[in-house]
Amino acid sequence: MTDRARPEFRSAASDWFGQPRGLTILFLTETWEKFSYYGMRSLLVYYMTRQLMLGQQRASMVYGLYTALAYLTPIVGGALADRWLGRRRAVIIGGSVMAVGHFMMAFPQLFYPALATIAAGNGLFLPSLPGQVGALYDAADPRRRSAYSVYYVGINLGAFLAPLACGGVGELAGWHWGFALAGVGMLAGLTIYVAGGRWLPAQPPRPVAAAVAGPRTGATDLRTSLGLMLAVGLAVVVLRGAYEQIGNTVALWTAARVDRGVGAGLAIPMTWFQALNPLLIFVLTPPLVRHWRRRAARGREPGSAVKMATGAAIMAGAYLLLAAVSQAAQGGQASWIWLALFTAVLTAGELFVLPVGLGLFARLAPAALAATAIAGWFLATFAGNLLAGALGTLFTGLGEARFFLAMAGLAGAAAVMLLALARPVARAETALAASPDPDLNPAPPPVLRQAV
Q1: Structural contact between residues 381 and 354, judged by C-beta atoms closer than 8 angstroms
Q2: Domain extent listing, the chain
Q3: What angle (nearest 5°) sits at the alpha carbon of residue 110, between those of residues 105 and 111?
């Protein structure tokens, strides 16, 4: 009897919270993995500049290279999982390697090998865990659509708790304790995954070679789809060059130029501000989705490219705000309230761009190339994060206000690029929506925080 035929996949009496028990296992595993990943990342730039005494330019470049590799290795790791290891084995191996890397971070002499180890483990883990969510359900199960929304909560829960716990411990008790706590989080996720293995779906059969779909009769042809994905991907690369400064130069600005005092001699730990982004995703997503649903009901929902252009413009506004605050401070300190406002505006723009773009990539690709499309999104993210690291090296030379103004210009340029694509993307989406063939109009994949 296969896992798909087990009674627990079909019996409502064995469900937890109205969903298959396996979803709870995957939810908690993902929560702890993101706790470890974002916990370490919240400390990274501070650790390099304050403990390892790296210069700002080198620290920014290392940060950009590491976060870029975190999106490149899953392309290789996903292929290894699908063709040789299997998803379960890939999760266990990848998670174990990541845990080792986090503990290695506690030793300064192992810093660069530790980063490489975490990136390698992430390559196996990231694409293998979420792919198991859909296999928990029969094709006709109405709960399948809401499953990924539940899973997405786990992603943001871990990303929210990580800076508060790992960041706070690392900043107040010692960097090595923060990194060790991130490693403990990864081990907790692995323990939950292994202990709950009986509730998880079986490994699907290995893929066989399939012919690539030809032109999309009645919809959009393959060449048009790939051209649009390339153009949108280039705009995303430009935008991420600005967006990814949030954990890099913005974090350094927070440490040097933000008055974090809250009275009575108390100050907010600088790493805690990185918890604002996932918290605001929780807060802002429901009203934004309701707004789009109301617009859709009236036939006035904007197309994906227009949404993304709007989000890029909002991000440009966030950096204009930061440039103005930096200029007004004139080398002094600004209130932490301005940083919180910047993060809120930037997060609002993110919700217009990153999940929308991932869904657009999935819809534009033929069903036979769906995985390749997601790999293309990873590549755009990799290039954008690499660009962000290179741009971060200009922070000291340009000065804070001019640097943030340049980031506003970069986000504005991405908005113009996306707006120029609005009509061709809208035509392609209209053609896809009108297609009766589900292979030409596949459902979008889960929106993964780390994947966007």
Answers
A1: no
A2: 1-205, 215-452
A3: 60
Helix (H), strand (E) at residue 67? helix 56-80
Are 92 and 192 spatial neighbours (Cβ–Cβ below 8 Å)? no
Distances (CA, A) of 336 to 232, 270, 381: 35, 10, 29
Q: How many helices (H) and strands (E) does the chain have?
A: 16, 4
pTM as predicted:
0.80
pLDDT (tens digit per residue) in 82-123 = 788 888 999 999 999 999 999 999 899 999 999 999 999 998
Lookup: tokens for 269:
């730990």
Structure token pair of residue 133: 């969510």
Chain CA centroid to CA 67, Å:
10
Q: Which of 154, 156, 122, 375 is nearest to 281 (CA)?
A: 156
Distance CA 278, CA 261 (A): 22
Which of 343, 404, 407, 392 is CA-nearest to residue 63?
392
Would you say the CATH fold of 215-452 matches that of 1-205? yes
Q: For residue 261, what are the β-bridge partners?
A: 267
Please say if the pLDDT value at position 438 is more than 60: no
What fold does the segment set 215-452 form as a domain?
Answer: Growth Hormone; Chain: A; (1.20.1250)
The span from the CA of 350 to the CA of 346, in Å, is: 6
- Please report the sign of the dihedral spanned by the C-alpha atoms of residue 433, residue 384, residue 269, residue 256: negative
User: Using one digit for the tens of pLDDT, what is the confidence trace for 293-325?
Assistant: 888 888 888 889 999 999 999 999 999 999 999
Instruction: Please indicate whether residue 443 or residue 341 has the higher confidence score (pLDDT).
Output: 341
- The full DSSP string for 16-37 is BTTB-HHHHHHHHHHHHHHHHH
Mean pLDDT of 197-226: 64
pLDDT reading at 12 higher than 70 = no
Fold of the domain built from segment(s) 1-205:
Growth Hormone; Chain: A; (1.20.1250)
